Amino acid sequence: MHLFLVYTILGLVTGSVYGIAASGLVLTYTTSGIFNFAQGAMAMLAAFTYWQFRFGWNWPAPLALFVVIVVLAPLVGAILYGGIMRGLRETAEVTKIVVTIGIMLGLIALAQWIWNPVAPRTDQLFFGENAKFQIFGVYVTDHEAIALGCGVLIAVGIRLLFTSTRTGVAMRAVVDSPALLQLNGGRPERLAAFSWALGAALAALAGILITPISGGTLDVHVLTLLVLDSIAAAMFGRLRSIWWTFGGALFLGLASTYILGYFPATWSWASDFRIALPMIVLFVVLLVLPHERLRGAILLVVVLALEQIMGSADMGTLTVGITYAIIALSLTLLTGYAGEINLAPVSFGAIATIIVFHLGLSGTGSSQRITLWGIVLGIAVTAVVGGLIALPALRLRGLYLALATLAFGVFVSDMIIADISPHILPIFHVHFSIFPNGALQVPPPKVGPVDLNSAKTFLTVSTVIFVLVGVGLIALRRSNYGRRLTAMKDSPAAAATLGQNLVKLKLSVFMLSAAIAGLGGILLSAESGSVNANTFIIFVSLALVMLTVVGGIGNVAGALMGGVLAGAAFQALTSTFQNLSVDHGGGGFWSVMANLSLVAPALIGVSLGRSPSGAVPDIVASYRPLWQVKWVLALGVAAELVAYLLVLTNVMGNWWLVLATAAIAIVTPAIGRAVRPDAFRTSPTVVTELPHALGQRGRRTRAMEGVPAVESVADARS
Questions:
Q1: Are 15 and 252 in contact (CB under 8 A)?
Q2: Of the candidates 229, 371, 356, 383, which has an alpha carbon nearest to the alpha carbon of residue 304?
């Protein structure tokens, strides 16, 4: 019982600090609509500043706390809102995310610049380790009591602020309709600035409180990530409810300490599981909280979970798949949104790689890296090349445009990549070759403090880039520009009649698509380390296009599916079957399976006629009825978590997780259909679009036959 009380009190204290940080996230999101990814970095910077005042310059603790929490932190929060966040209110979601991530990286770099990362620094408990008292025979330090009390008081205070004061009600109205609030006498900008100032103060308080509790050592990255764990607590409250947020924080704190206290010492993975617990909980919460803005976060959490059970080689394979998915996003924009066909997306990646290799590297030997300038230059040049390719193809559509891009891809393979012999530049008299010796050695990128040298970091960053680009494309599709692309796709003649400049529209979308493909190509080459002509051969582009169309060319998930299939899944299957064939003496069943896996992409492409819209929309539609039987969906999620834990504990291997996931994916809808067959009944398919060839004559003919013309889905349903 004594041990239980010890871990319970410690869990409540830790959860209270999580609750303080999460309350700041909820506060800023509720009033500004911006999710502050820099919350952890702000807490870290406050902890370092407090250490400097308290132990570096020997200020009294009350004065140091007052200056950091009451003066500096709110000032930083207000400046961030007034100088940066205020202009983001009407911007796309991806812009808001990127800006706060940029602030986070900037604060990390600032802290490392001011405080030497090598020098050790240790924070201490308020009033020292001897300042403690007993509760039920358990010693509790004054610092821990203060942390617990602050958490409860802040939760109650923010709840009362939102529900019982005019200011709180106005703060909630800021994000919904600032103009309406202003018409009623409110000052939305002042209220939003106040919320950011208060959110920064809460982050500072959380950073100062958590440091001594977690061991006292000040580390830039550890502190930033520690407070970022509060994101899971904020999601408990759906970024709205303070009570649910604080309850989720207490749950996380208690769960982490109970794992520490009650998991057997022989479980070597327990410590890693405890660290990963907030992200696992976040993943589960996101599954039961479907929201369009959070789907990218689900992908990122899944990748972070897979990193815990994958070796470096497996992570490298998955990274290649993600980089192909980034290239496939260029097809989502160009073909899915604008209706323009590109059969050579990987060739644009080759152009960007060549630019980076010749102009964007820094350092020598093992310390050589791709610079930020190199990445930007490679993307810019690729966008220009995309525009040049678009110019002669402006009058082409359909098959003719496809053939034009195919010609460009073959030209890149046969002329540019094949140029391995040195030439003498006539003006500079310098020996130069585009693809020296037939291979390019491409090092990993390094941008500021982020070095992609490790497999885990490369996979995480690549996934983040895919999520950001994907969210950006979704926002673009809903913008005025996206609607113009849709109009051009549906009817170029009608779009031109309505005043659209199709030349500029085609040129811009080709350039943007090429830039995305160039970014993916740079990451693909950096992950591969060494690229040759086979990396960018035209057949690689054709396979990627086919698999992206199979996944669903018009949506981001289809690009993810196509990229992972093209870059990782089939290669992994073929390699596995080949290894099994060798282990069993060669030939036989496993050899046949290896050959079938080589043919599988073609078979999938041939089967596209059965589902022209792609596999992803069909998969989503088949799982949507499960939301009406949530307990079955929860059962499937629980089974998947059990399978993951069995792999994490080395009870079974990674391939068993793949098989278990496939089985769960098949069985879960079957159980739902058996329990609630009415939820899975679908109405007969209604033809919602007449062939263009019928035109008005076809409509009149059908009307004369007594069949009403169907103009839209809405008409069909009515």
A1: yes
A2: 229
